[in-house]
Specification:
The chain is mostly helical. The chain contains 12 helices and no strands.
């Protein structure tokens, strides 16, 4: 793929997405100190509030910021109306706060929070689809972007319906619709976006080439089938399709894991940097979470489901995002503030912009914290669980410090 940065938006547009996202990541982990392990359940209001804070203001915010940068790079056309992105992150923050309070104390706030989130996502979807209309040739990556955004649209509509149901305005079978909402947004949008962007970013950062895309293509098609199966289960109440959906989803994620291993084996760059360490921990977390999901499927123990969900949220998605921030932020800063001096003055390398000791401490503390929290969740021992949260909080504070440091580097600090 011919990747160009000529249409990329300015760093000041995407920086708030990254900084606010990491701040919310820290806040979401601090909120977990208030959980009681004995009563922890995936349908508790506090759990639902935490999941929405984590997914909306951390995962979605950073993905949208990254997509603002990556969509024009992949499509090789400029944004249709890039300034619309300035309206997206305030709406997401306001919507998340309203939804969090709605789950915790005032359910009537849920439709208002959901509406703010819906408007933000609608702006993103409209801008993305209008940008895609400028493309003359649709390839596999672009088709995944189109399909993932369609899943996001339907997931948002279901989310609004669930918010109205939770606040008492509608009366629906929320348990079945909740599963479709999760599949559409988390696997349909986040999952397919991670798959497609991995094909661009991993080979670029690891310098991998001459590998087949067969595994991830099959993983993508199977994941789409899984989501459709879950929709059939939710709307037509045919139980067998729920089992099919879970089975296909696990097969898809295993195939994606195989594709990552193939890219890893074909890498030219063997440097063990912060990005490499983050990716290894992320994909190992994905593998362990799949084992726990399979175990839950056979034994039905809720602790296994919560531990698997924790690992796929924080261990897989969290470390995947953190690792990419250590590549994307310095690259954007370098491109905007130092690239014009190339050939005229001595400029820093990308690795010079990354605080190495701080980032290494971050990955050590964060990974230890994630592992210890997982053990605490499985064993149901509060002391282990909270000691893990302490390690993880310290690691994430260092992550926030590193992002702020890299985002505020000035030209005069390196160019003489």
């Amino acid at each position: 793929m011919n990747i160009s940065t000529a249409f990329a938006p300015p760093f000041k547009l995407v920086a708030p997405f990254f900084i606010l996202g990491v701040i919310t990541f820290v806040i979401s982990i601090l909120l977990m100190f208030g959980f009681e392990l004995e009563s922890l359940h995936y349908l508790n209001s506090s759990t639902l509030a935490w999941v929405h804070i984590f997914l909306l203001s951390f995962v979605m915010l950073i993905i949208l910021g990254a997509m603002a940068q990556l969509v024009p790079v992949v499509l090789e056309v400029g944004h249709c109306a890039v300034d619309l992105y300035y309206a997206i992150y305030p709406l997401i923050i306001v919507g998340t706060i309203l939804m969090a309070f709605g789950f915790y104390t005032l359910p009537i706030l849920l439709p208002f929070g959901g509406t703010a989130i819906f408007i933000a996502m609608a702006i993103f979807l409209l801008e993305t689809f209008l940008t895609i209309l400028k493309v003359k040739k649709i390839n596999f990556i672009i088709s995944t972007i189109i399909i993932s955004n369609i899943f996001l649209l339907f997931g948002l509509i279901l989310g609004i319906a669930l918010a109205l149901n939770h606040s008492g305005i509608l009366s629906l079978d929320s348990f079945r619709l909740l599963k479709s909402h999760i599949f559409l947004v988390f696997f349909g949008y986040v999952g397919t976006t991670v798959m497609s962007m991995s094909l661009i970013l991993l080979p670029m950062f690891w310098l991998s080439h001459s590998f087949s895309w067969i595994y991830v293509k099959n993983a993508f098609y199977i994941l789409c089938s899984s989501i459709i199966s879950m929709l059939i289960f939710s709307f037509f109440n045919i139980n067998i399709f729920e089992t099919i959906a879970y089975t296909l989803c696990i097969i898809s994620l295993l195939l994606y894991f195989v594709q990552i291993f193939v890219i890893y084996k074909k890498r030219v760059r063997v440097e063990v940097d912060i990005y490499f360490k983050s990716m290894i921990f992320s994909y190992l977390s994905l593998l362990v979470s799949l084992v726990l999901f399979i175990a839950y499927y056979f034994y039905g123990n809720d602790k296994l489901l919560i531990s698997a969900s924790w690992l796929i949220f924080v261990g897989f998605i969290g470390f995947l995002i953190a690792g990419h921030l250590y590549k994307i932020v310095p690259f954007l800063v370098w491109y905007e503030r130092f690239s014009m001096f190339v050939g005229k003055k001595q400029v820093p390398m990308l690795t010079d912009l990354i605080p190495k000791k701080s980032s290494n401490f971050q990955i050590l503390s964060s990974s230890l914290g994630t592992i210890i929290v997982t053990i605490g969740l499985i064993t149901n021992i509060d002391e282990i669980y909270k000691s893990g949260l302490c390690f993880l909080t310290i690691g994430l504070i260092f992550l926030l410090k590193d992002i702020l440091y890299m985002a505020t580097i000035k030209e005069e600090s390196y160019v003489f």
